[in-house]
Design brief:
The structure is a single chain. This protein has 11 helices and 3 strands, in the order E-H-H-H-E-H-H-H-E-H-H-H-H-H. With 315 residues, the chain is an all-alpha fold. The protein has a 3-stranded mixed β-sheet with strand order 2-1-3.
Length: 315
């Protein structure tokens, strides 16, 4: 579509053209993305049900895992249904307000996923390094002091990010080469200086997931050092830490790859970049409940009980 002159008007409707270079083959993407979406919703729903319904899973650690499952359930809801409709029916238009809302919720939930992993690392720190005062620190009234600052940080930074993006004038074109709205994908269409937007986007990446990752790394370094020095048989707790590290590693790989591919000159093809970004939204949300279900003994046992009960009931 032709661009508009800056003094004319600003686009309020955008087209999401992700994977359009695939032509007719693009429709077949509906199948794998639908299967991943169904796996995500099913696996996380089961995990949430288990943690809510089983009293033995009402400890702080499992509550945090339950919150992670809620985030993993919500994350794809803001992007994947529109993607599926676009693949199947070519419904690829989105309003500026809808685009900004999509960016906000994907980034807001995404930042809380890394922050939640930080809270899980804090839980393991108190459980392993401060076991005598664990219940004191993990009481909701005491734990809230570790929650308030990250919550305010995540919320305020994302609100400012969306507010500044919404004030931009879009007159270059209205085609976003993506399957859902992404901050830099929208900002690149502006016909004015976007230096502040670029700096703030970089700041969000540095002050939220990067800062959380540094805190998590320090926490686990202290935990592993404490276990090795004490010589205690604390492998159950260590196993939980390994689970968190696996989840964190996969999440960071997709987040950083998507971030770098958008903001640097590279040889990543548009389709590869779009695929990586969609996996950032979908893959961890499918992967997390399976990892926690398989590697966490208590959750695995409760799932087997539920499966056996359903099997008996159906016979």
């Amino acid at each position: 579509m032709q661009g508009l002159t800056p003094e004319n008007s600003s686009f309020t409707i955008f087209q999401l053209n992700g994977f359009y270079s695939l032509g007719e083959w693009r429709r077949f993407l509906f199948i794998p993305y639908l299967l991943m979406f169904l796996l995500c919703t099913t696996a996380n729903s089961i995990l949430i049900f288990l943690i809510i319904s089983r009293r033995s899973l009402h400890s702080p650690m499992f509550v945090l895992i339950g919150v992670m499952a809620v985030l993993d359930l919500c994350m794809p809801m803001f992007a994947v249904p529109n993607m599926l409709l676009s693949f199947l029916f070519d419904w690829n238009q989105i309003s500026l307000v809808g685009c900004l809302m999509q960016i906000f919720w994907v980034q807001f939930v995404g930042t809380f996923q890394s922050t939640l992993l930080m809270w899980m690392a804090l839980d393991r720190f108190f459980a392993i390094c401060r076991p005598l005062s664990y219940h004191k620190h993990m009481q909701i009234t005491n734990f809230m002091k570790f929650v308030i600052v990250p919550v305010l940080r995540n919320g305020l930074m994302n609100i400012v990010l969306i507010y500044l993006a919404g004030k931009l004038h879009f007159c270059l074109k209205n085609e976003i080469d993506h399957c859902f709205c992404e901050h830099m994908g929208l900002v690149q269409l502006a016909c004015q200086d976007t230096t502040v937007n670029n700096i703030l986007g970089l700041s969000v990446a540095l002050l939220i997931p990067t800062a959380d990752f540094i805190f998590i790394t320090i926490s686990y370094a202290i935990i592993f050092t404490s276990v090795i020095k004490s010589g205690k048989s604390n492998w159950k707790a260590i196993n939980t830490c390994v689970t968190h590290i696996i989840v964190l590693t996969f999440s960071l790989i997709f987040v950083l790859t998507a971030f770098v591919s958008y903001r640097t000159r590279n040889y990543v093809s548009p389709n590869s970049r779009i695929f990586i970004s969609t996996m950032y939204v979908l893959f961890p949300c499918c992967f997390n409940p399976i990892i926690y279900g398989v590697r966490t003994k208590e959750i695995r046992q409760q799932f087997l009980k539920l499966f056996n009960n359903v099997k008996v009931f159906s016979q």
